[in-house]
Amino acid sequence: MRILLVGINYSPEIISIAVYSTGMAEFLAKRGHTVEVVTAHPYFPEWRAREGWGGLRWVKEHVGGVEVTHCPIYIPGNPSGVRRILHHASFALSSLPVLMLKVIRGKYDVVFVVAPSLVAAPVGALAARLSGAKAWLHIQDFEVEAAFATGLISQQSLIGRLAVRFERWTMRMFDRVSTISPQMRRRLVEKGIPQDETVEFRNWSDIEAIKPLDRPSPLKAELGLTEKMLVLYSGNLGKKQGLEAVVGAAARLQDRGDIAFVIAGDGPLRSDLEHLAAGLSNVVFIPLQPYGRLSDLLGMASVHVLPQMADAADLVLPSKLINMLASGRPIVATAMPHTGIWEEVQGAGVVVPPGDTEALAHAISDLIDDPIRMETLGKAARAKAIERWDIANILSGLQGDLASLTKTATLERGQKTA
Predict the structure, then answer these.
(1) Coil, strand or helix: which one is 311?
(2) What NCBIfam families does the record tag this protein with (predicted)?
(3) pLDDT top residue among 311 and 414
(4) Contact 333/249 with Cβ under 8 angstroms?
(5) How many angstroms separate the CA atoms of 350 and 188, rounded?
(6) Domain 2-204+390-417's class?
(7) Residue 330 three-state SS
């Protein structure tokens, strides 16, 4: 198959959506498919241009058997509602000429668009139509509802109402629409997408790369925390994560000299969190670690903490959850009952209500004081990662779904010719 992937996040970004888009593209390339990628200059999660990137230039490179074109993009220092829309619109505009040149020069079997960025999705759908390809939209986040939940956009505003209409119109342009959890797939159907046109395409963990450590993590020593039980959050520091609850729990546990909180990551909320944690000696902020050190980072946790705002439930299933499970450490999450996070953490950790810092602190403290339970939950977490989140199984399933879709396209063309 010839596959054209369109998505705003890709390698060399090292977290979140970029990891999965890159992994998918390189997996398919290794299986003998021709894969080309149109993406933006790397900027996430720092929300600033990486060193050596930026400017009004298009950069082409070949990495992992994939041809990748990086397009210029507007990167707001403070990604508010309107600025964020402009950010995505700039990618739609800068990717348009690249996509048009590609479909003029050759045919594709599938144009696979990853949202974010939903704003750029119509450009990908247009490329599919011009190329005679099937159009596939993969939704990592429900961006519109997440913007409402975090207060970036008011649902009652003109922009909010237009955003809802744009989302529905855009989704209907695609032959397949996939997303990352059963709960999010149900939302697609609620939004008017026929059930048989939806697919659950999960994120995954490389369970051979992310394993329970059989030795102390060297990162603990580097941080001077070898004597501490560590509560770890690693990932994007943004609004929908509800990270204020983690700092609140740390404040309630600052009299526990044996417990320290480590927040690893970057994002628009980092400075606010650092200000909120000022004066707390049990909170340490560190940068994101490169992928080669991810197993050491996750393995230094005694307990992983996974917060989420109540209003953001089932608008996204945080990808960080999957590697937490693979690391073989128990998880304390904040989530409403029967949401995606709640269901995935069952048997592998503890779930408390979102925003309840007292309940979060008690859950962390009680778990750390019960090492047998910690070990039991950690083993269950690892087993769940192997059973449900293995990269080879998930991507082989996607390859089959893509082949089925292109087979349908071939049959349709044959019927038209006849």
Answers:
(1) helix
(2) PRK10307.1 (NF007640)
(3) 311
(4) no
(5) 28
(6) alpha beta
(7) coil
147 alpha-carbon distance from chain centroid? 16
Alpha helix (H) ranges present in 277-417? 294-299, 320-326, 340-345, 357-368, 371-388, 391-417
Helices (H), 265-356: 270-276, 294-299, 320-326, 340-345
> Which residue has tokens 């790397």?
42
Side chain identity at residue 137, one-letter code: L
Q: How far is it, in rounded angstroms, from Cα 148 to Cα 162?
A: 13
Q: Which CATH number fits domain 218-388: 3.40.50.150, 3.40.50.2000, 3.40.50.1820, 3.40.50.2300?
A: 3.40.50.2000
- Angstrom distances, CA of residue 146 to CA of 140, 220, 311: 11, 35, 8
* pLDDT recorded at residue 408: 58
Q: With the C-alpha atoms ordered 21, 27, 30, 31, is the resulting torsion angle positive or negative?
A: negative
Model confidence over 227-244: pLDDT tens digits?
999 999 999 898 777 899
The pLDDT tens digits for 5-14 are 999 999 999 8
pTM for this model (two decimals): 0.90
Where exactly does CATH 3.40.50.2000 map onto the chain?
Answer: 2-204+390-417, 218-388
